[in-house]
Structures are given as C-alpha cells and as structure tokens.
Amino acid sequence: MSTETAPTADRVAAPPPAGWEEARSRVYAVGLAAALPAVARPLADIDGFTLAEPLTTRTDLPAFPTSSVDGWAVRGAGPWRVVGRVLAGSTPAPLTEADTTVEIATGAMVPEGATAVLRVEESTTADGLVRGTPRETPEWRQPGEEAYADEELLPAGTPVDPAVIGLAASCGHDTLRVRRAPRAALLVFGDELLTAGPPAAGRVRDALGPAVPAWLRRYGCQVRQSDVVGPVADTLPAHVAALRSALASADLVCTTGGTMNGPVDHLHPTLEALGADYVVNTVAVRPGFPMLLARLADPDGRIRFVAGLPGNPQSAIVALVSLVAPLLAGLQGRSMPVLPQATLAEAVPGRGDHTHLALVRLDRAAGTATPVRHVGSAMLRGLAGADGFAVIRPGTRGEPGDRVPIVPLPLLPGERAS
C-alpha cells in the first residue's frame, strides 16, 4: 500500500477554512464581546466615536411654542394694538386683552394667549394698529413637534458625526457616553518590498503600507504614522518583537503578508509565541483565502486582535472588508454591517466551493453592478475604479439580472452613501 498521502504520527491536519459568511459572523461576535469601554465625553470631542447609550431628549423639542416667522403674535380678530415686542431668548408676558399684539421674531417664544402669528410681510401698520389676515396654518412650532421629552432618537451603536452632535446639543446634552475609536497599527512584512521609487531588480513597491491605514481610518480607527512599521525583517525574532511592541498600545494590529507557511512566513509561529488563539484561520473566499484573525488576552482581561492580511494587495483589501470591518463594528458596539443588494449588469464567474468577491462599479440610480477589469489578486487598478465587491456564493455563478449582495468599500467618516 502506498504511504505517500498517509499522515505522519506528529502531523496535525489543518482545520478546513471557514465559510465567508460564517467568518464574518464569528469575528463580529468576538468583537462585540470585547467592545471598548463606554466613557462620558464632551460633545466637541466625540466626532467619529459611537453612541454607547441611546440618544434621548431632555425636554420636548421644541421645549416651548416657537414662532416660525418674523411678524406679530396676535390675540383676537383685529385690528390689533401693539403692546410690546418679543425677541428670541426672552420669556414674554401673556397676551390677556383681546385685539392686542406683540411684534415677534423668528425663534422667539410665542406668548400665552396668542391665537395666531401674522407674517410681517402680510401686515400693514397705521394709526398705531396692525392689520392683516393670518394664514390658516399656524405659523409656530408646537412643543414636542420634533420629539417629546425622553423619546429615543438614535439607538446605541450609532456612529457619531456632526449631525448627531448637533442633534445632541439641541436636546440639551453637554456630554454623551460613547465608545472611542479603536486604535490600530500596521506591520508590513517582506524583505522584497521597497518603500520608495519604482519596482526594480526583483523588488516590488509596498502598496499596502500607505493604503491600509487610510482604509482603517475609514472604518473608524485611529492610526498614527508612528503606528505603521516596516518592512519588518523576515526573521522570527523580528516578527515577535514588532508584534509585541505594536500590541502594547493597539486594540488591533494588521499585518501584511506571511499568512501562509512558506520558508519566510513567520506570522503563525509569532502568534504561537505570543499565546494567541485563532478566531479564523483561512476563509473559503477568493481572492484572499489565507486571511486570519487571532485574539490575545492579557491577565487583566484586556483583549487585542491581530488581523493577518495576505500580501497580495487586492487579497489584503478582501481581508479588510471580510474580517476587519465586522470586527471593528463589534468593537465599537455598532450593528453588524448589513449588505445592500444590486442587480448584476454582466456575468460574474463563480469560484467553485469558495465565495467569490468580485470588484464592481455601482450605478446607484439604476441599482446595477458592473464587474471591473484588472482584478488579479496582485492588482490594484481595478480596485481604484470600484465601489465594492459583489458576493457570488459558493457553488454558483452570477448571471446578468441576478440580485446579489454588495460589500461596499468604506466611506470617509461622516459620509453617507447616496
């Protein structure tokens, strides 16, 4: 009997790769379990953070009846005798007599007893009296028109942007409980990489060192220039030292390259040396198969993560959208990213028993997705013209007219998709 394929006594079979959807769910769950602590911060300091509690109103909005126009707050049918003026920021006396009025500014509190607000441009003044016909629609905002006291306006897990900050201020908040942005670092592996100039003499330019931090910032991370290290020497001691140093201050360390088991692939031995546990070790997706996510726990309970991105540039971005994006959503206490759908404008091949993430350009008005060209795992030209990845599930291919999930490329903080 041939023994060529028989396992040796000390060989441990590698676990099968995780399914792509399973991997996303798994890393989101571990991120949520390790969600960053909630802290109270002033409104001016929370742009890019995440609500740790629902945003509620402290009063009715508006808190009092507020004039929508410049004009006259009147009582009775008129004409009206002027008895005062109300400006924004003041509390007016009630209108107690019939056919009296006070001049009122936009945003000012409507006095008790007023029956209407007459627009200034639709009024006349003569002989000390104001005349005109108020519109049938009230010209003031009623208390609670926008929200009632203690009403929940936004749920916990909402990303904080300038619009959220303004809303919180209008509700009367000075501080909010939020989760800070995760701190991330990047280690670039590979002695063959150049950090300046064109590729030459068997060496290639590092495209991930400059690009990955920008992607991470779009996912809400804090990444300083000093947090980007590399190329790290292709030795195990250098890898262990670099990763240990990065983990001292980062919640997440991304690495590029070294995720397989070649002669200079030291990531797996490094993780073993540091006592890391795998959350995901390879994913059944193309491109990007040799991606991984590992978890480290300190004695004090602090959890940190290492995301191993493949060295091929497009594969690395696939790993970012597949593993890093859901992990960061969990760490920030946000919801699992929901994938929008689009209709394929052209056919997209399948990848057998692997999920295929195919770069596409979106026509949002038409709701269609068109595959782009130049999409090899080592290429970035197609990525530069794409809006996201179409998800072609295992055992299928994408046909024109099929509705498929889309993994969007991340936007700048505060941006919203059109």
UniProtKB/TrEMBL annotation:
Q: What class of enzyme is it?
A: transferase
Describe the location of the MoaB/Mog domain by residue ranges: 185-330
Q: What cellular component terms from Gene Ontology apply here?
A: cytosol
Describe its function.
Catalyzes the insertion of molybdate into adenylated molybdopterin with the concomitant release of AMP.
Q: Which PANTHER family match?
A: GEPHYRIN, MOLYBDOPTERIN BIOSYNTHESIS PROTEIN
The record's family statement is: Belongs to the MoeA family.
Write the protein's name: Molybdopterin molybdenumtransferase
Provenance organism: Micromonospora taraxaci
Upper classification of the organism: Bacteria, Bacillati, Actinomycetota, Actinomycetes, Micromonosporales
